[in-house]
Design brief:
This protein has 150 residues and is α+β, with helices and mostly antiparallel strands. The chain contains 4 helices and 6 strands. The strands form 2 sheets. It has a 3-stranded antiparallel beta sheet, with no helix packed on it. The protein is elongated, with a radius of gyration of 26 Å.
Length: 150
Amino acid sequence: MKTIVAPIFKSIVLIALGIVIGVAAMLYREFNTEEPVHILQHPLMMVGGDADSQPTLLPKGTALYYEKGYPEGFVMYKMYVNVEGVMLETHKPTEKFWLKPMNAFPVQDMQLRELADTYPLSKTQLAAILESGQISKDEIRALLQEFSRD
């Protein structure tokens, strides 16, 4: 009888130890893997979606979570959005390549002109774009002269 109980007890102890180690590893991974994050210091121009979609701004302060860099020269980030007041219908993707990323880039002189014409820029947004250093002082002067004539 003694010879049967010892192997069963040993097996139970090893299984329990394996479960404890597995749970500990899962918990460690869950609580100790932080996604690298970038907080936008300046707005980015964002385009994509439908072909006729208007460009918009990704505001200063938006958190972008690093996902993957590509050899083509761009980096993919994730952004989390809380949607309130509407239930969005969801479905499982049917296409092999179901991702439809938007493109974001610093606002340049010509995009700023387009934004100023078509997008309701606040003073804060405009100041953040101008502070980004992507637009030269000469371009800013020309833009202000152009709008002062209108």
